[in-house]
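In this section we walk through a basic example: taking a raw amino acid sequence and producing a predicted 3D structure, encoded as discrete structure tokens. The instruction is simple. Fold the sequence below.
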Amino acid sequence: KPIFTSIRFKIVFFFLIVIIVASLGMSYIVSTTIRGAMIEDAVEDFKLVSREIHFNIDNIVLEGRKGVDFLAENPVVRSPEYSVDEKLAKLLELKEVFEIFEDIILANEKGDLIVATDYMFSGNLKYKNVFKQANNGTKSMSDVHFISYPLRAIISYGAPVYYDDEIIAVVIVQMNMDQ
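The resulting token sequence is shown next.
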């Protein structure tokens, strides 16, 4: 009798086919389950990282806003009785406290530079939105933008400086976003 027609061969062949199909099915189910679990883990990891980034960005924004408010309320910065050199000395001292600020700029209400701690910004700030908003009495924050010298991505915060309930200047701080 030929081997392919015997009952014994047919039973063994049937069980082999069943085992192969079952193994392939199990492999597919296991790989799909593992893939799904890995995707779920990756999504959870991404959620954690995004929450942490959100938390850090919120802290940076809050620190910038608090810092510019503190600078705008400083008696030396606010008072017209102090000289430009005294204002610069105070701003440099405060820059050591607020290490996140790369530059602190004080401009008069017309947008002309009074003093800057680092880059000696030149020109008129009156065209910058952060200055315009602060000069109108609103604390402001810029979008992240590039400055040409030194080439950096920065964010700027501005706040009005009041003396006798009148805006006499605007303080603008720049934070390097590469740090």
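Looking at the output, two observations stand out. Residues 7-72 form the longest helix (66 residues). The chain has four helices and six strands. In the next section we compare this with other chains.
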